[in-house]
Structure formats: C-alpha cells, structure tokens
Amino acid sequence: MKALRTPDERFENLPGYPFVPHYLEVDDTEGGRLRIHYVDEGPENAASVVLFHGEPTWSYLYRKMIPVLVKAGFRVLAPDLVGFGKSDKPTEKKDYSVERHITYMRAWMQQLDLQNVTFFGQDWGSLIGLCVCALEQDRIDRIMLANGGLPDPRNLQKMGTVAVTESPDPMAFTKWQQWISQREDLPTGKIMANEVPDLKVEGLGCASLSQGEKAAYDAPFPDSSYQAGALIFPLLALNSPEQADQFPFFAEAWEIYDSWEKPFLTAYGKADPILGWFDKIFQEHVPGAKDQPHSEFSDGTHFIQEQYGPELAEILVKFVRTA
Fold first, then answer.
1. What is the domain range of residue 283?
2. Among 150, 171, 174, 276, which residue's CB has the most CB atoms within a 10 Å radius?
C-alpha cells in the first residue's frame, strides 16, 4: 500500500514533547512494511506502562503523563498508531481497518517482547488496545482506561441504553460521524481546542490549549493527503447490531473480559458525551473492575489527558503499586 511519512522538521521544538523518537517496522498485511514511531522513556528493565492514543491525536497527548510515570520509576512506551503522529500514513481510506490496526499494534508489542505490562488506553486506543491485550493477555498485568470503550456486538442495545441514561448528549458520536463524513480535511488543532464552530459536540476538546499545543496536533498532517486515517476512523465504528458480524474481534475480546480477573481500573471525564459513560459498562461486566478505586472527573472532557494528565498519571502509579 502507498504511505506517506511526515517530515521530521514538522516535529521540531514542540512544547512539552522532548522525547527521543524510536521506530520499528511491521508488515502492512499486503507484503510491504509500515514504520511505527513510539516514545520509550525510563529504564529498559523497569516495569512497563504502555499508553495508546486515539483519533485524531498521537503520543503528544501523553506528554503530561510520561514525565510523572518516568519519575516514578517506570519504563513508559507510547506508540503512534499507523496513520497518526510520526508513524507512516497510508494514503487511501480503504487501507484502514480496525482489524489491521489490532494486527499492527500486536506486532509492535511482540517485537518489543513487552512483559508485565500495565496498559492505559483512551478513545480508539482503548478499542484497539483492549483487543491487543486480550490476544496478548499473558503479557498484561493490569489495565487502566480513561474515556475509552469496547463495543460488545452481543450487547449493543444494552450499551445504548446506558449511553442514553448516562451521556449528556447520546447523539454526540453520531453528530461527530456526520460532521467528519463531510470533511476532506481536519483542523486537528482546533478540534482538540474545541474551536470548530460547526462541530456541534460539546465536551470533545479542551479549551485551554496554547497556540503551540494546537500546532503540535496539526504537525503530523502537512496537508489532507496525510489525513486518510484521521478522516476514516470515526466511520469504522460498530454502530448497529446489523454490523456485528463485521467485528468478530470485539466479541472475542469481550469473551475474555467477561472472565478477566486481573486489576481493571477506570478514570473518566464525565463531561464527555461520547465515551464518558462507558466506565459503567466495564465496572459492571469485567470481574477485575470490581471493588477497584475508580475515579471520575465531573468536568473532564473526551481528551481528558489534556486537562488531568498529571492526575491520571498519579492514579496510574498508585494503581501499579497497589493492585
């Protein structure tokens, strides 16, 4: 498949992101190779904490958490999904699928031979990451999620009921899909800063971003030819029971999480209408989530790492040390 690679100079002098880049290659499933970028900070032989981002972000989202975790003595790894950040970006929307991204990130974890992992995921980083964790469960010691989800093809109606009850705007994701389906490019920095007037989803972005931080979210995408992944990802979601057969990997993952006894913690921003309610699903259905000290941030938006990065990192440190 054809892929683009963002020029390195786009990532120079980003505020709060001094991390040395690391790279490895994975099979693109068509006989070619794709380069994945990842942050790798802290002692190589220390306990590993793995951070997965979602759409349309990249490992920059974790810049406020990484230093706290490294200071606590962990090895911290934060990859950029294919199509995002410093990783290679296939140019055709048809080249993106959830299943391929699970395959890519599983290969990334296997190549690094990570063991005794604490996994942290948000947004698409949780959907992809939880499937990877299920497939690589022997490598995983515990899981923490912040504003993430994992659709269960077996129980979509029940999940929809919880969303209606718990979300401040149950139609928020539909609005997001409709808006992005009409776009040929994404003003990523403005989305992250909640500065897109015609995007009628409250609780998505974080209004406190500086101009430099907004520019950092734009950095991976010199123009729209680099944005196929960012544009198509929301449209890859499982939305209805009629689509269930297209997402067997979600059902297979849930079969594992139905009996997952390892520690499973949630820390969610409740002002997020898209996934701020999904913590209730995990708390009810994952055995390892029972009796854990789950956290809520009443004003936390979808990209909660921007608002409460250090606080989330401290919760994660305590979780690793006590669970």
1. 3-322
2. 276
- The pLDDT tens digits for 113-159 are 999 999 999 999 999 999 999 999 999 999 999 999 999 998 898 89
- Condensed to tens digits (0 to 9), the pLDDT of residues 198-220 reads 999 999 998 899 999 999 999 99
Give the residue from 185, 170, 163, 106 showing the smallest Cα distance to 140. Answer: 106
Which residue is associated with the tokens 């950029």?
Answer: 80
CATH number at residue 24: 3.40.50.1820
Tell me the C-alpha distance between 210 and 218, whole Å: 13
Q: pLDDT tens across 296-314, in order?
A: 999 999 999 999 999 999 9
Instruction: Given the residues 123, 152, 279, 294, select the one marked as catalytic.
Output: 123
The alpha helices in the chain, defined as continuous H runs, are: 66-71, 98-112, 124-135, 156-166, 172-181, 188-192, 211-218, 228-232, 248-257, 279-285, 304-322
Domain count, the chain: 1
Q: 38: helix, coil or strand?
A: strand
pTM, two decimal places: 0.97
Q: Does the annotation mark 53 as catalytic?
A: no
- Nearest-angstrom CA–CA distance, 183 and 221: 15
Known catalytic residue at 279: no
Given the residues 88, 272, 279, 294, select the one marked as catalytic: 272
Decide if 302 is catalytic.
yes
